[in-house]
Amino acid sequence: MGLAKQLIVDGKDVVIIDSSHERIESAVSKQDCLGILGNGTDIAKLMEADVEHAEAFIAVTNSDEINLVSCGLVSSTYPHVKTVAAIRSLIYTGVDGLKEGLLGIDYIVNPNAETAKSIYNTIEQGVNGNVLGFTNSKLLLYNFYIEPFSSYVGSTVMEMRNKLQAEFVIASINRRGLVIVPSGNTTIQAQDTLSIVANSEEVTDILKTVGQLQKRPSNMVLVGASKITRALLNRMSPAMRSKVAVVDQDAEVCRAFSERFREILVIKADITDEDIMAEEQLGSYDLLVALTDNDELNIITASYAKRIGVERSIALIKQNNNYTRMASYLDIDVVISTTDTTVESLLRYLRGTNVTSIHSLFNGQLEVYEFVIHAENMVCNKQLKDINMRKKAIVAGVTDHQGKSIIPTGLTTLKEGDTALVAVMRDSSDFIQKLFG
């Protein structure tokens, strides 16, 4: 549903095929889409959905086999239609992943791998839910809330830059639910949320200034030896894993993890046991990440961990995405949704081969794209002041092909191989994609 909602907002015609009558009814009642009761492996249902004239066919069921077969059917019957599949099992993709070539499928996304990547990046950025990173750039996006008593209230954007003595761009302002793309003369008001783009060093200085700097945790406990836990540990270096403890109640799973990751401490225990936190001194850890397959248990564990002394906590939401907003009110530092990370990966692919990252902010009102500039792009070799973005978007950062990141000015020229961070109002995203894509 998350992906369908995004595509519908983009102005796409969406047809959903599902074997559940209840899910079809729910989708059709909540979204402007068509629903077909059936299975994606049924060629008759595919014809009923008019797949032949579709731009893309996306299979994201909970069954890898159904996703593979349905995409294979579409690919062989309608080779001009893009096919996208969610594949979770490493049997099909291998440890290093597989992005194309399997049964003619154009793009494969592994939800477990995408979620593990998101968690790892969150840890690297100090477990700050207000900081977002990008694939090809060292620039970061930081959402900064203006308190009523803040010294920045009443300042213009330009004056705030002078006060902080840092190089950054305010990509957007969320003002009581309304998002605007500011100019240098825009006045900052109390309770504004500013989306600031800056180099990682500048972000660190800004966070120090406003008292919100958090260092990367040195030791952490992962609750639940799940597939996502395995993918997360694979991303860590041996030195980083040496400061990790994994808690799970399944003896076989614990044995497998201790053999696969010899640096970690494996604790066989039920995290709901009221004595386990004290016995294993889990309160002494810098970070607890709840990664079980039970959303409710993850929320409870991450929230309780903060109460017994764990500095920071992360909760994974796998099944019910409605919990994501609710969990944020329970003193949990970061909530990671498997659905959201998977949708983000799929949108990157669907919106162009030169889109390497995309973040959706403020209930979808603002999107921040990371574009790689190619020679054929309309903006290539142009100065920013000469690119008409209709006051609906702003180029917030540029990274050249050598990896040097800068905060741009109107005189900055976009060159082939550069990476541009572009913040755009949702209603202008199609225009910006054509301009930069």
Automatic annotation (TrEMBL):
- From the Swiss-Prot or TrEMBL record, what is one GO molecular function term? monoatomic cation transmembrane transporter activity
The cross-references to SUPFAM superfamilies, in alphabetical order and at most eight, read: NAD(P)-binding Rossmann-fold domains, TrkA C-terminal domain-like
PROSITE patterns for the chain: RCK_C, RCK_N
Task: Give the InterPro entries listed for this entry.
Answer: NAD(P)-bd_dom_sf, RCK_C, RCK_C_sf, RCK_N, Trk_Ktr_HKT_K-transport
GO process annotations (BP) = potassium ion transport
Q: Does the keyword Oxidoreductase apply?
A: no
What are the UniProt keywords, alphabetically? Answer: Ion transport, Transport
Q: RCK N-terminal domain spans which residues?
A: 1-109
Q: Where is the RCK C-terminal domain?
A: 129-212, 356-437
Protein name in the entry:
TrkA-N domain protein
State the species of origin: Sphaerochaeta globosa (strain ATCC BAA-1886 / DSM 22777 / Buddy) (Spirochaeta sp. (strain Buddy))
